[in-house]
Amino acid sequence: MQMAPDGGGFSAGVGRRIAAKFMRHKGNTRNMAAASSLAHGESSQISRLKSERDRFVALAFCWGDLLLELDAGGTIVFAGGVTQPFLGRPPEDLVGSRFEDNLAAQDHVLFRQILKIAEQRGRTDHLALRLHGKLGVTPPFSVAGYRLDEFDGHFFLALRLTGGSGETAAVTRDQGTGLFDGGEFASVVAARASRLRAGGADVRMTLVTMDDLQNLRARLDEASDQALMSTVGACFRAHSVDGDTAGRIADGRYGLLHRSDVSVLAFERELTDVIREVDPEGAGLAVETATVEIGATAVSEEDMARSLLYVVNRFRESKGGAFTIKSLSSNLSSLMNEATHSVESFKRMVADRSFNLAFQPIIDVNSGVIHHYEALARFAGAAATDSPYQQIAFAEETGLITDFDLAIVQKAIDWLDRFPRNTNRFPIAINVSGHSVGSERYVSALYAKLRENAWVRDKLLFEITESSRMTDLETANTFIQGLRQVGHHVCLDDFGAGAASFQYLGALDVDVVKLDGSAIRNARRGKKGRAFLTALATLCRTLGVETIAEMIDKEDALAFVRECGVNYVQGFLFGQPSTSIKDFDPLPKADLFRGRR
């Protein structure tokens, strides 16, 4: 069969054959009109012609590789198109079979949801279904269709082979429902909302809570539980944009992007009903929703994704807290606006570099000599002693951290350039988030900056924070070795705070590890703590890795880590962070090292 130029529609010849089939099915239109005029009068003739026109239009506007007509019970009464390559059967062999029997088993529930929506709205748009025939399961087809009451509720479908969506091919999904995971959901929503917004469409995001879902699942056997989650996933997908813009955000917490003509109340009822049907006690569970219009926001797709991710994360973390679905339903729009404003403000701050560096010394535990200073970010309006934790956490969860980390590098280079380049009086360490380590854009931009400023190689150290974010340790180690090869020392922060620390020590070749303050406190409290910390310091020394103990605020803590064999210390005992590095010359509490140099 000759395909249309775009590969997705019927050729003109096929269109004519379809039209001819319907003309034969009803008889010659002009003869029929004349007969109808004699028998029923002119009004009957017009009505019959209108129905014939509507039937043909319904098919003509269904584009695709396959065209199907289903009766009200879901049985195929007409089939046309390229069925042989996909199902191993000619079109006429499909007539009389139930359409659902030609679907992949995992899409049966979704199709039933599609039919329910078509009954309510008269149409369905761009949903994804897979067929199953003699040749196995097909790739996804994009499905569009119309239900016409004047033809006894028949459903006209067009299926176009898509080969899958490149937009979502690499994303992860929840195994039980087939929906996107939370972070992926926010990105997909942003991409599709931007596409629809560009076309003038009005789209909304609805967040859903089903707090008793886990209790219900615990009452079900394995097969019933699988059926429940498959049904829940199908219900969300069927009401969402493209039939695949819904996500599982956390246990009992879901979301979907949908058009404005989707009734959220009807969706709630539908979801409640399908869950009640699966519940052996017939009780079901409460479904609550909150909706925000996002299609009209005048922000880029990238910034929309960041704002949505912020909102989705607040929703994920809110279970059991004050941030409930009831409060969310009244302030979701303001929360979205707040997130958008925060994203824009943070981007401006990064672009303008309107932040400062505050310094804190890293001190040799025996001699009291300052090895280097950690350069800490401090934002406008905050004191040097104020922690930037909230702003950094916001940047990490919205994907802005890589731009900020690059801005920190430039800020540090500019600060070092205030001193003669042939001296190494004030070496500083800057933080790099574990998020950025895996960013190709960050890595390439960083290496470019370092090549342009080779004079900083013995003055600039890198401290990797949030190392738990590094999932690809091989890539992370390649990044670290790239820095070390051009003369920069690398420190692994937060060591000992999690069970994966030793895995990192084995996989990553670094110069220094910074022992987390909580690990130091726990070592001091526990009976075996001294032995553990001593063994850890010995292991690092054997591997050629130096150690820094952070949050050393009291003299007895200094004595403790010194006895355990730690190399360096950092903490308020020697002064709080300051924007003036001269505040540490002379070093406060220098007398604690007298006689040890």
- Mean pLDDT value: 81
What is the CATH class designation of the largest domain? Alpha Beta
CATH topology of the largest domain: TIM Barrel
Which percent band covers the strand fraction?
A: 15-25%
Give the tally of structural domains: 3
**Span from first to last CA?**
89 Å
Structural class: alpha/beta
Total beta strands = 20
Radius of gyration of CA atoms, rounded to a whole number:
32 Å
Poorly predicted regions are: 1-39, 164-169
The CATH superfamily of the largest domain bears the name EAL domain
Helix fraction? 40-55%
Number of helices: 21
* Main sheet specs: 8 strands, mixed, barrel
Give me the side-by-side strand order of the main sheet: 13-14-15-16-17-18-19-20
Question: Brief description of this entry?
Answer:
The protein is an alpha/beta fold and 597 residues long.
What does this protein look like?
- With 597 residues, the chain is of the alpha/beta class.
- It has 3 domains: 12-161, 2-Layer Sandwich (Beta-Lactamase), CATH 3.30.450; 180-345, Alpha-Beta Plaits (2-Layer Sandwich); 353-593, EAL domain (TIM Barrel, Alpha-Beta Barrel).
- The protein is built from 21 helices and 20 strands.
- The strands form 4 sheets. An 8-stranded mixed β-barrel has the order 13-14-15-16-17-18-19-20, surrounded by 6 helices.
- A hairpin with a 5-residue loop joins strand 13 and strand 14 (370-379).
- The protein is elongated, with a radius of gyration of 32 Å.
